[in-house]
Amino acid sequence: MGAKSFDVAVIGVGGMGSAACFHLARAGLKVLGLEQFGIPNTRGSSHGATRILRLGLHESTKYVPLVQRAVELWDELGELGGDRLFHRIGSLDVSVPEGAIFTGSLRACQAYDIPHEVLSATELSKRYPALTPDEDMIGVFQPGSGFVLPEASITTHTNLALAQGAEIHGMEQLLSWRKKTGHFTLRTDRGDYEAGQIVFTTGAWIGKLLDLPVEAERTVLGWFAPFCDFANFSEENLPVWIVDSEETGHFYGFPTHGIPGFKLGRLRETPSPSVDPGKPRVEPNQEDEADMRQFVSRYFPSANGPILSMVSCFFENTPDRSPIIDGVPGVEGAWVLGGFSGHGFKYATVTGEIAKDLVTKGSSTQNLAPFKASRFVIKASS
Ligand SMILES: Cc1cc2nc3c(=O)[nH]c(=O)nc-3n(C[C@H](O)[C@H](O)[C@H](O)COP(=O)(O)OP(=O)(O)OC[C@H]3O[C@@H](n4cnc5c(N)ncnc54)[C@H](O)[C@@H]3O)c2cc1C
C-alpha cells in the first residue's frame, strides 16, 4: 500500500500549527497535522497559561492590522469553542517618557486611533496599587487589550480541526521531507506520507529544520505569592503590563489567572545565547528567581513573597525579532510561519488564517511584505 496522501501537511501543532490545521480543515482541505510531542505541550513556546495581547504595539505599527484581525478571530474562536479565550482587561506600557515602550505604544495607538489613556506615575500607582513606578515613569493604558490563553486555544483549534476532518498525530516527529513532481513526500518516526503542500509551524525548531535564521532563546516565567494586598493582583485591579526600567530591565506580567500567583517574565534587549531546542532543557533555577525577584521587589513589592512556580520556555528569535511568513525559499508549495520572536501568540488566530490563504490562493489579504524570508541571507533548503 502506498503512503497516505493529503492536500496539505502542517508540521508542528503548537500555537500557530493548531490554528493552521483548523483554518485549512474548515476550508475543506484534507489536512495532516504532525506534532513531535503532545498537544498541547510544555516543550516549545506556547505554555504558561496566559499571553499578552496588545492592540497598539510598541514594537512597530506594522503589526497593528495583524492583531486587529487576530482579535476578530479570537472572539470567533471563543464562541466556536464555548469558552472565552481573549480576556479584555486592558494593558499598560510603562517606561520613562522618552523610552521605546511608552513612545512606541503611544505612536501605534495614535496612528490607528486605538483608545488609550496616558497616565503619570502618580495616576498609575493610585489606579493600580500593586504597581510602584518610579516618579519619572509614564504609562499608556489600552482598555481594549488583555490576554489570551495559549494551551486552551491550542486545544480549541485542534478539537475544531478534528471535528472538520483533519487528521492530527501527536508524538510523531517529522524526520525528513522532499519535493517530488507535484507533491511532497514526508518521513516521520512512525511512517511515510504524501502531501500536495506543506506548512512549517515548528516554532523554535524552524531554524534547524529549514536553515532559516531562527534561534531558540531559553527564557523563564515565574509566579510569586503576594504576601499582602492579594486583591490588588486580580484581573479587576491589574491589567497586563510591561515595565521597562533602566536599572532592573524590561519585564512583563499578568494579574492572577490559571496558575496560582503573580506571573512575570523578562525580555532581554540582547537575547541570551541561543540553545538547541532538541537538547535537554536547563530547568528554572534560583538564579532565574533572583533575577525576577530584584524586579518584583522594586516595582510590585507586595508580590515579593515565596516563589510558587517557574517554567522555562523558548523564544524563537529572528535577527530583527519579526516573524517569517512566506514561502520556504526555493520550494514551491512549502510555507513557513514562524520566528515570532517572543511576541507571536496574539497573532496565532490570524496566522492560521494566513496559512489557509497561502495554501489555497498563494497570497493573503494581510500585508506580508515585512515578513519575507528574503530580508535575511539564507540558503535554499529541501
Ligand atoms: C515565556 C514566553 C512568554 C511569551 N509571552 C508572549 C506574550 O505575552 N504575548 C505574545 O503574543 N507572545 C508571547 N510569547 C511568544 C509566543 O508564545 C510564541 O511566539 C508562540 O507561542 C510561538 O508559537 P509556535 O506555534 O511558533 O511555536 P510552538 O507553539 O512551540 O509550536 C511549535 C511546535 O512544533 C513542534 N515541532 C518542532 N519540530 C517538529 C518536527 N520535526 N516534527 C513535528 N513537530 C515538530 C514542536 O514540538 C512544537 O510543539 C511568549 C513566549 C514565551 C516563551
Give a quick rundown of the structure.
Helices cover 25% and strands 28% of the residues. The chain has 382 residues and is an alpha+beta fold.
Report on this model:
This protein starts with a strand and ends in a 21-residue tail after the last helix. It has helices at residues 15-26, 64-81, 100-111, 121-127, 150-163, 206-210, 286-299, 348-361, and strands spanning 4-11, 31-34, 51-53, 86-87, 91-95, 117-120, 138-142, 146-148, 167-169, 174-180, 183-188, 192-200, 215-224, 240-245, 249-254, 262-267, 307-317, 324-327, 334-338. It folds into two domains: 4-46 and 150-210 and 320-375, FAD/NAD(P)-binding domain (3-Layer(bba) Sandwich); 51-148 and 215-317, D-Amino Acid Oxidase, subunit A, domain 2 (D-Amino Acid Oxidase, Chain A, domain 2, 2-Layer Sandwich), CATH 3.30.9. Strands 1, 2, 9, 10, 11, 12, 18 and 19 form an eight-stranded mixed sheet that branches. Strands 6-7-5-14-15-16-13-17 form an eight-stranded mixed sheet, with helices on both faces. The protein has a three-stranded antiparallel sheet with strand order 3-8-4. It has eight helices and 19 strands. The chain has 382 residues and is α+β, with helices and mostly antiparallel strands. The protein binds flavin-adenine dinucleotide. Flavin-adenine dinucleotide (FAD) is lined by residues 11-12, 14-17, 34-37, 41, 43-46, 48, 51-52, 173-174, 201-205, 209, 219, 221, 265, 313-316, 338, 340, 342-346.
